[in-house]
Specification:
alpha/beta, binds pyridoxal-5'-phosphate, about 220 residues, eight-stranded parallel sheet, 8 strands
């Protein structure tokens, strides 16, 4: 049996104090979340809107929910009222829809821009010119109902450490570059690193890690 509580305590006590752990609870039952909640964890990540809204309705209201998976535009309205941070903003169109839906309910939604750093073309994310275009439009004041808090990225799924390092370094480069250009004091978060690579990610400058299987065991 995987002991999520033991894994959690070990991981949490090994993290530098400025690194936020997002416990990725996708596919795991609400009870698994409650177990870590009772140990003090408040940030939880899900990758599907329906699963996220179902769990949010069952669980304590002070949980900070993170959406980490690809978000379809027609589902934005379901999460905008309560989401703490959307990590996966991967197009100008999606950002526009989030801004519009948040405006309807007079909210400012926290988001990260997801950057494509992996070799696989299956992974979502912005390229450099799309990132620059968003920063330009944001600085022009086009988006009044989103708060751009930083960047997110996923490395290639590989055993090759050198490649992962190279990809994380490129994301850190985009982060520093964007931070110097964007007119957003909230731009402070670099969401980088999962179960297999979070230690590397932290060494390269991550301050938010998204960890699932190393806490809850593998997903089937
Ligand atoms: C599932 C997922 C994670 C967590 O993956 P683990 O390898 O189980 O830690 C992190 N980020 C994203 C975007 C995910 O979809």
């Amino acid at each position: 049996m995987f002991n999520a509580l033991e894994n959690y305590n070990r991981l949490q006590s090994s993290l530098p104090s400025d690194v936020v752990l997002v416990a990725v609870s996708k596919t795991k039952p609400a009870q698994a979340i409650e177990l870590l909640y009772n140990a003090g964890q408040r940030d939880f990540g899900e990758n599907r809107v329906q699963e996220l809204t179902e769990k949010a309705s069952l669980l304590p209201k002070d949980i900070r929910w993170h959406l980490i998976g690809h978000l379809q535009k027609n589902k934005v309205k379901y999460i905008v009222p309560f989401i703490h941070l959307i990590h996966s903003v991967d197009s100008l169109d999606l950002l526009t829809v989030i801004d519009k839906e948040a405006g309807k309910i007079n909210k400012v939604v926290n988001i990260l821009l997801q950057i494509h750093i992996a070799e696989e073309d299956t992974k979502y994310g912005l390229n450099e010119s799309e990132l620059n275009e968003i920063i330009i439009q944001f600085n022009e004041g086009k988006f009044q109902h989103v708060r751009i808090c930083g960047l997110m990225g996923m490395a290639t799924f590989t055993e090759n450490q050198a490649q992962i390092i190279k990809e994380f370094e490129s994301l850190k480069g985009y982060f520093d570059h964007s931070k110097s250009l964007i007119n957003s004091p909230a731009f402070t978060i670099l969401s980088m690193g999962m179960s297999g690579d979070y230690m590397l990610a932290i060494e390269i400058g991550s301050n938010m890690i998204r960890v699932g299987s190393a806490l809850f065991g593998s997903r089937t």
